[in-house]
Amino acid sequence: MERDAQDERVMAREELAIDPVDLARKLLGGVLESRTPEGIVRLRLAEVEAYRGLDDPASHCYRGRTPRNDVMWGPAGHLYVYFVYGMHFCANVVGLSDGQPGAVLLRAGEVVEGADLARKRRPTARGNGHVAKGPAVLTSVLGLDRAHNGIDLTDSSASVRLLAGESVADERIRSGPRVGVAAAIDIPWRFWIDGSPAVSTYRRGGRVRPRAER
DNA sequence: GGGGCGATGTGCT
DNA sequence: GCACATCGCCCCA
Questions:
Q1: Can you give the distance from the CA of residue A83 to the C1' of nucleotide B4 in angstroms?
Q2: Which residues surround strand B, with CB < 7 Å?
Q3: Domains of chain A (ranges plus CATH)?
Q4: How far apart are CA A108 and CA A196, in angstroms?
Q5: Residues of chain A scoring pLDDT < 50
Q6: pLDDT, tens digit, 9 for 90 and up, residues A100-116
Q7: A2 exposed, middle or buried (CB, 10 Å; 0-12, 13-18, 19+)?
Q8: What residues approach strand C to within 7 A at the CB?
C-alpha cells in the first residue's frame, strides 16, 4: 500500500536541513525507530519543540559551541542526546545545515510497534507501553542514551532511524509555548497533534523566585 | 575550583 | 499541586 511504503521510507537529509521551526511541523506523524538486541520499538511523533540556535535564549547553542552541544551544529538529520536533571536523557533531531545550529526536541509519541519492550523498559510510565508522554519517557522507551548521541538518522543501516510516517494535516497541528522553558516563554515553538493521547501536560519552566516576582 | 540549576518524572498530599 | 531525586554542564571567581 502507498501509505505503508511511506511509513517505511527513511527520511533524507535534505528534507531535514531546514529551519527547526519548519522541521518541527514536518516531524509530527513521523516515526522514530530503534533497533537493539532486545528488539524493535517504533514511535509515531505526536509532540515536538523547536530550538533555534544563536538567537534563542532557551537553546543549548545560545552561548556558543561546546563539547556537549557539538552535534547541534550539524549536519542535519543527526540525533542529539543530552543528559538532564541528573537522571534523564532527551533526544533531538538536528535541523538546518552545517554551521547553523538548531534542533527539534522530541517530546512525546505513540508506540506503534514494540509495546511490550517499551513497557519493560519503562514499567512505571503511564499509558501501559502504548504512549511515551514526555521527552525522558520517550528516550527510555526507545532505549536511547548518551551512546546514541550523533547517530545519523538518515542512514538506512543505523540502529536508530527516522521514517517518514504519515503526513499530518495542518488543521490537526496545534502550537503553544515550550514546556519547562522560562526564556522566550511567549514564543509558541511547541507543536503537537491535536487529540493525541501522548501529548504531555504543560508546565512552565524556571524556578519560582523566592519573592522577587511581582 | 566551586556552586547553582536545568528542554523532567514520579509519588504523595 | 508540590517536593524531591541526582549529576553534568557552564558561568564566575
A1: 17
A2: A 49, 51, 58-61, 72, 80, 84-88, 90, 92, 103, 105, 122, 124-126, 133-138, 178-182, 200, 203, 205-207
A3: 2-193 (3.10.300.10)
A4: 10
A5: 208-214
A6: 899 999 999 999 999 99
A7: exposed
A8: A 60, 63-64, 66-69, 83, 85-87
